[in-house]
Amino acid sequence: MLAEAFGRRLAGDGVVRGLLGPREVPRLWERHLLNCAVLGEAVPAGASVCDIGSGAGLPGLVLAIARSDLRVTLVEPLLRRTTFLTEVVESLGLDSVRVHRGRADSLHGTERFDVVTSRAVAPLDRLLDWSMPLVARTGVLVALKGSSVRDEVVAAAPALARWGLADPEIIELGASMLEQPTSALRVSWADPSQVGLAPAGARSAPAARVSSRGKRPRRSSRKGPR
Length: 226
Description:
By secondary structure, the chain is α/β, with parallel strands linked by helices. The protein has 7 helices and 7 strands, in the order ααβαβαββαβααββ.
């Protein structure tokens, strides 16, 4: 079973490589794998999915295993994480999964997806700036969130208005199979016909998440053209 094979990789290589804390192993299935797998309840059939800040593959890789009909792109800037993700994708034969090393904004203006998801990446106001340029006109952002989700929605009111988004919907996933259902926030465009790349003042992901191969350009000492 693919899910069991991935669970073994997380509990083994994932811990050794520092992608998962050793204390998480005893609760790996309940807290991580099943918690992410139920995201499939909020994803339409045959959708293209982008998981930003994928880390060890939570939730994107779990979703791809649970839903073979999906086309999933895992976006992660750190080499050690993308190396792990690529190895798992190849070993499990997940042909519908692509691993992209880079920040979310490296895909802005080039690709859009039916669903953009994430888990514990950033507060909602920042998450919108990273995610919404990737959401198709008829697409949706579905972010796995914790108990503070309502407070995040209130704090992000200016960002929600700036992006021209409909009222967010807080949903519970896995109520029929999990003792503690997974909380998620679903956000869509208020007027899909007005969707553009980004509104004025939108922020990019912080420079600390840039690929380790990236270098800052040197500032020229020249004050004018040659």
